[in-house]
Write a structure and sequence with these properties.
The protein is an alpha/beta fold. 38% of the residues lie in helices and 26% in strands. The structure holds adenosine-5'-triphosphate.
Amino acid sequence: MLKVNNIDVYYGKVQALFNVSFEASGNDIVSIIGANGAGKTTLMKTIMGINTPARGTIEYEGRTISKWSTHRIVREKIVYVPEGREVFSALSVEENLEMGAYTLTLSKSQLAERMEKVYDIFPRLKERQKQLAGSLSGGEQQMLAIARGLMCEPKLLLLDEPSLGLAPVIVDDMFDIIVRINKESKIPIVIVEQNAFMAMSISKRTYVLEVGHVAMQGESSALINDPTIKKAYLGG
Ligand code: ATP
C-alpha cells in the first residue's frame, strides 16, 4: 500500500536520509525506531510531501506520490500526527476534533457520529469535551492529537513519537489505544518511536534507522530478541 523506494533526502547540502526503503501494507503496525536525529521525522515528513526526495520514489496504492503537495496527500486520507502533541490549546476538545474534519464537507449529524466513534476509543476526552485543550494533561493532549487525526477516517496513520514525554503508566495506555485503533479501523499504522521496546512489542515489522540509513529491518518478534538490537536499543 505504501512503498518508499530508495529515497535520499537533503536539508540544503546536508543529507538526512540515504537510500531509505520501507513498506507498510495490509493492516499491519510497522515501527521505525532509532536514536535522536536518525531521520525518523524526516522520513515521515517526506511521506507527507513536506520534504521532497532528491532521489527515489514514494508509492501509495500504486501511484507515485513523491511529488504531490501535502494537501493532495492529506486528501488521500494519509494522516500524520506529528511529535509534540500539537493541539489547539485555546480551543476546546470538541473544537479540536471538529478541526480534524475541517477539510471534509460533513453534515452536523455525520460530524457528531464521527465524534462519538472517536469518543468511544477515548472516553476520557468525552468527559473533557468542553475543556480547553491547553488545560489537559500531557497524555490527554497526545490522545487528543491522535483523536483529531482519526476524525477524517484515515486510510493510513503515521504517528510520530506518541509516547514522548509521557509517564510510564500513560505510555502503556497509549500503546493499548494504538493497538485498538489498528484492530478496529483495520488501517496500517506507521509508528516512529524512541521507545523501541514498546514499538517492537506492538508492531509486525520494524525498521531501524541509524544516521539516515536503514541499518536493520525484519519481523519485530525476531528483532526484539536480536543481541545487536538489545544492546543498542533495549538497554542490554
Ligand atoms: P528526533 O527523535 O530527535 O526527532 P529524528 O530521528 O526524527 O530525531 P530528524 O528530525 O529526522 O531525526 O533529523 C535527521 C537529521 O536531519 C538530523 O541530523 C537533523 O539535525 C537534521 N534536520 C532535521 N530537520 C532539519 C531542518 N529543518 N534543517 C536542517 N537539518 C534538519
